[in-house]
C-alpha cells in the first residue's frame, strides 16, 4: 500500500514541495513518504536481445527476453497465427522463444514479451522479418480496362525486381507499356503490365521475371490484342491460340491431318484460278449476248422478206380486167 501511495503522490503532486506525507516508525519517528524504502516492491522491466528480428526462410532463430522486478516477474510470450514450428522456455531468465524452419508466411508477425508481478507489468515487442526468394503466384491473360492489363501477383522479400520478356527479348518499358503495382500486402505485390492502345505488334508470348538476392522465378502467358492486317490466318479469342505473331494454336492437333493445311502458296494459286474462272464466265456471257443480237436481226429482216413474197404471189393470181 505504501508503494501505491508513493506513486500516487509522484503523479498527482509532482511539484508540491510542502506536502506533508510521512510515515511513523516503531520509534515514533517521522519519515518522508517519498524517502521511505519499500522492500520487495519493484515494477517489472523487460528487454529483448534485438529490435530487428530477421531470418532467411527455412532457417531457425531464437529470441531472448530478460525481465527484472521485485518480486521476480513471470514471463509470457504472446503472438498471433505463427505458421512455423515454434517453442518457448519461460522457466529461465532470460526467457527464450525459438522458431524452426521459418515460413515466409510469418513475415511481419509481431512477437510480444510480457513480464508481470504483484506491482505491475511491462512488455516489449519485435517484428519478425523473413527474407525469401520471389514466387509468382498469379499471371493471367490480358483484359481491357482503362488500359490493357496483364495481371500478376508476386511474393518476395526484399521486394523483387520485375522485368518482362516479349517473345524471348527483353521488353523496354515506355510511356505506352509499363509495370504498375496496384496493391502491396506486406511481402505480396499485385499489379499489371499496362499497355496503352496495343496493336498486332504487341501480340505474342510474355514472360514475367521476378528476382531478388535470394532467388528468381518466372512465368509465361500468351497475349492477343489485334489481328495482323497482313496475316492470312484468322485469329480466335481464346487463351491458347498464340504461338508466334499471326500463328494460332490448334486445339485439335491430334485429329488434324497436316497434309490438309493450306499454305500461303496454295492460297495464291487458288486466287489465280478464281480470277481465270471469272474471265471465262464473262467471255461466254459476251458471246451468248452477241449471238442473241445476231439472231434477232436475222429474224427481223427474214420476216419482212417473207411478207413481200406472199404479197407478190397473191397479186399474181388475181386476174386483171382487160
UniProtKB/TrEMBL annotation:
Superkingdom of the organism of origin: Eukaryota
Transmembrane feature ranges: 276-299
Name by which UniProt lists this protein: Ig-like domain-containing protein
GO biological process: cell surface receptor protein tyrosine kinase signaling pathway; homophilic cell adhesion via plasma membrane adhesion molecules; synapse organization
GO molecular function annotations of the record: ATP binding; axon guidance receptor activity; neurotrophin receptor activity; transmembrane receptor protein tyrosine kinase activity
Lineage: Eukaryota, Metazoa, Chordata, Craniata, Vertebrata
PANTHER family found in the cross-reference section: CONTACTIN 5, IG-LIKE DOMAIN-CONTAINING PROTEIN
Record's keyword annotation contains Nucleotidyltransferase: no
Keywords, alphabetical: Disulfide bond, Immunoglobulin domain, Membrane, Signal, Transmembrane, Transmembrane helix
Amino acid at each position: 500500500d505504501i508503494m501505491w501511495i508513493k506513486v500516487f503522490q509522484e503523479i498527482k503532486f509532482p511539484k508540491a514541495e510542502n506536502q506533508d506525507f510521512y510515515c511513523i516508525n516503531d520509534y515514533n519517528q517521522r519519515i518522508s513518504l517519498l524517502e521511505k524504502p519499500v522492500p520487495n516492491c519493484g515494477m517489472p522491466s523487460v528487454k529483448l536481445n534485438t529490435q530487428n528480428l530477421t531470418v532467411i526462410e527455412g532457417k531457425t532463430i531464437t529470441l531472448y527476453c530478460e525481465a527484472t522486478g521485485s518480486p521476480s516477474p513471470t514471463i509470457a510470450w504472446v503472438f498471433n497465427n505463427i505458421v512455423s514450428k515454434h517453442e518457448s522456455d519461460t522457466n529461465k531468465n532470460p526467457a527464450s522463444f525459438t522458431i524452426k524452419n521459418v515460413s515466409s508466411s510469418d513475415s511481419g508477425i509481431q512477437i510480444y514479451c510480457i513480464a508481470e508481478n504483484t506491482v505491475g507489468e511491462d512488455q516489449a515487442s519485435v517484428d519478425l522479418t523473413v527474407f525469401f526468394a520471389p514466387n509468382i503466384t498469379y499471371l493471367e491473360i490480358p483484359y481491357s480496362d482503362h488500359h490493357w492489363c496483364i495481371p500478376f501477383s508476386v511474393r518476395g522479400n526484399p521486394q523483387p525486381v520485375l522485368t518482362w520478356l516479349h517473345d524471348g527479348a527483353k521488353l523496354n518499358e515506355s510511356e505506352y507499356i509499363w509495370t504498375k503495382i496496384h496493391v502491396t500486402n506486406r511481402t505480396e505485390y499485385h499489379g499489371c503490365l499496362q499497355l496503352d492502345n496495343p496493336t498486332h505488334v504487341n501480340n505474342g508470348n510474355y514472360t514475367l521475371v521476378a528476382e531478388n538476392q535470394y532467388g528468381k522465378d518466372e512465368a509465361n502467358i500468351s497475349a492477343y490484342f489485334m489481328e495482323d492486317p497482313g496475316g492470312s490466318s484468322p485469329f480466335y479469342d481464346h487463351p491458347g491460340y498464340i504461338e508466334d505473331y499471326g500463328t494460332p494454336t490448334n486445339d485439335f492437333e491430334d485429329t488434324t491431318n497436316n497434309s490438309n493445311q493450306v499454305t500461303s502458296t496454295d492460297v495464291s494459286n487458288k486466287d489465280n484460278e478464281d480470277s481465270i474462272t471469272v474471265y471465262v464466265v464473262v467471255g461466254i456471257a459476251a458471246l451468248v449476248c452477241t449471238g442473241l443480237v445476231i439472231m434477232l436481226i436475222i429474224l427481223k429482216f427474214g420476216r419482212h422478206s417473207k411478207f413481200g413474197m406472199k404479197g407478190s404471189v397473191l397479186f399474181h393470181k388475181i386476174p386483171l380486167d382487160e
